[in-house]
Amino acid sequence: MPIFRLLNSTVLLFLLLAPFTLSAQSQIKLQVKGISGALKDNVDIYLKKFHEDDVRPGFRFHKELEQDTRIALEALGYYQAQISIDPSPDDPYAITINVQAGAPVLIAQADIKLFGDAVTDPEFQLLLQEQAPVVGKVLHHGQYEGFKSALRNLALRHGYFNANFSLAKLEVAPELNQAFVHLHFDAGPRYKFGAISFNGSQIDSSRLNSMLPFAENDDYLASKLGTLNQSLAASGWFSSILVEGDADNVQQYHLPISISLEPEKRNIIETGIGYSTDIGPRLKLNWLKPWLNSSGHSLRSDISISETEQSIEGAYKLPLQTAATDFYQVQLGFRHRSETGISRKESNLALERHWLLSSDWYRTASVRWLYEDFVQADQSDNISLIMPGISYNRTRQKGGAMPYSADRLSLKVEISDQAWGSDASFIRLRGRAGWIGSLSDNHRFVTRVDGGAILMETLLNLPPSLRFYAGGDNSIRGYGYESVGPRNSDNETTGGRYMLTGTAEYQYRITGDWWLAAFTDYGSAWDDKPDWVQGVGAGIRWASPVGPIRLDFAWGIDEPVDKQKFQLHFSLGPEL
After folding, report:
1. DSSP, residue by residue, 154-214
2. Dmax over Cα atoms in the chain, in whole Å?
């Protein structure tokens, strides 16, 4: 009996494993020869469905391969192809598809006509110029269908809601290698924006109307509805926004626009815990009142506490035409920093005017009062300054929180003069530039340059918060936070009048959202003569949902030999 049980078990096991054994042996191996480029790519796409284990070679399967290969070639205009299917004599699952593409079908006639208001629409003329089939070109069915879709989509985006093809016909004469395209597109009348209504808003209608990127009787354009939606969302006033056309009440080709809004909460409180090697652990508390009144004024206060630095800041915003990017703002802030040899107490009061320019530059004009009571190195003083200033910023990026392409430019000038009550006269310049680029999906490059200068004043008459320092997470890695710069006779950091640093970094994706990085930083902060230093190192990057998280191991190679040791840098936030 045990022998029969063993035999039965063996037979059962064989029956269970047999399909997997056959499946493992039946993996189809297809190779296409005789064509390259787009033709081969398209054939490969069509044949992907045959990379399955349940396919069995044979005459029927070979005919199916030939048919699908021919369809893939005809889609790109090759109707006279000669195709042969050659299985390997040693392995019937290894099949070579030999293709002679032959002469392509050329467009012999392109009968393309526009009717309706689209005839004078420059966007349609541009589309015809860039995508319309052209006599003498190789027939491409995908491009033909793509052009038809582009006409329909453009009509919808521009308000030609009655558009249709009065004639859409593609004729192919394979024996002549000729194709005849007939496309007659009747766009009909272009609709216009009708009456515009806001519903459910707690903000004055005059304020909302000033944010409209279009007016009643303007030609309809879908992108303007998107712009309005973004502007309303960026204001922070609303928890829900719905912008839609009222198709049931169209009159004389005018589409009414209805904007339904729900107010945001009156109070929003955010808490957070952060860490960077520059200042250590940090607690944050933010209190936001997105709207205080029907004019859309808002109030924000931020509290930040770490071992070495504590701050409280408040900002009152008075929006203008475009609430998110065109506004006045009054800021009041207090900051205290204390560590070995340093004690700073800062009070800031600033009036700012913000604009987003048509060139995508963000401009801020300001007047700032700074009072600073400080002890640093061998200097103890208090200084009061009134500084008008102006800054320009522009940031562009593609690819989310960890972009594959980005650039940033930032320029700022502040002026102080004893003529209007300041304790010192000077011009402070600050500039920053950064660039991110990619090579394929797995290689990124990050470069940064940061610089500043103070003109017309000696260092002793400047508060420490306006002096320049280098070193730390976002400066010269391998050196401690603000440790690079002029020092007094007791080797205490005093800060400099000038600063210039640069970074070059290469990143390689190891898997998913994880990257390895290698970098070098170079620069200095100085008063009379720069003492250039360099840091080198390697790090790990994680593209987290809240932004890039960076962990770096760096060495300051210009430190004295007896003081050289690696620095650990940890930071969260944008790379530029």
Report:
1. HHHHTT-TT-EEEEEEEEEEGGGTEEEEEEEEE--PPPEEEEEEEES-SS-HHHHHTT-SS
2. 113
Rounded to a whole number of angstroms, the distance between the first and last alpha carbons of the chain is 78
Q: Which of 128, 134, 192, 135 is nearest to 154 (CA)?
A: 128
Half-sphere exposure of 372 toward its Cβ, with a 13 Å CA cutoff? 26
Neighbours of 70 (CB within 10 A): 18
Q: What are 171's strand-pairing partners?
A: 180
Pairing, β 178-186 against β 106-115: parallel
Measured distance CA(392)–CA(414) in Å, rounded: 12
Render 127-144 in DSSP notation, one character per residue: HHHHHS--TTSBP-HHHH
Q: What confidence tens digit (pLDDT) does each residue in 410-467 have?
A: 999 999 999 999 999 999 999 999 999 999 889 999 999 999 999 987 778 889 999 9
Question: 497 pLDDT band (50/70/90 cuts)?
Answer: very high
Interatomic CA distance for residues 558 and 81, integer angstroms: 68
> Hunting for tokens 């400047």 — which residue is that?
462
DSSP letter string, 264-324? PPS-EEEEEEEEETTTEEEEEEEEEES-SSTT--EEEEEEEEESSEEEEEEEEEEE-SSTT
Residue-averaged pLDDT of the chain = 89
Tokens read off for 239: 């928890």
Cβ pair 190, 114 in contact under 8 A: no
pTM score, two decimals? 0.75
pLDDT: which is higher, 10 or 93: 93
Q: How many CB atoms within 10 Å of residue 527?
A: 17
Helix (H, G, I), strand (E, B) or coil at 61: helix
- Which residue type, as a one-letter code, is found at position 465? S
Nearest alpha carbon to residue 325 among 294, 299, 295, 361: 361
Predicted confidence (pLDDT) per residue in 81-132, tens digit: 999 999 888 888 888 999 999 999 999 999 999 999 999 999 999 999 999 9
What is the pLDDT averaged over residues 172-189? 96
Helices (H), 386-485: none
Which pair of structure tokens corresponds to residue 428? 């402070």
Beta carbons within 8 Å of 526's beta carbon, 6+ residues apart: 485, 486, 496, 497, 498, 499
Give the tens place of pLDDT for each residue, 548-562: 999 999 999 987 755
How far apart, in whole angstroms, are the C-alpha atoms of residue 221 and residue 214? 9
Residues facing 168 on adjacent strands: 183
pLDDT at 291 over 60: yes
CA 51, 57, 61, 66 dihedral sign is positive
User: How distant is the alpha carbon of residue 69 from its chain centre?
Assistant: 40
Q: Give which of 402, 574, 432 is closest to 502, Cα–Cα.
A: 432
Residue bearing the bigger pLDDT, 259 or 559: 259
Q: Three-state SS for 49?
A: helix
Confidence of residue 327 (pLDDT cuts 50, 70, 90): very high
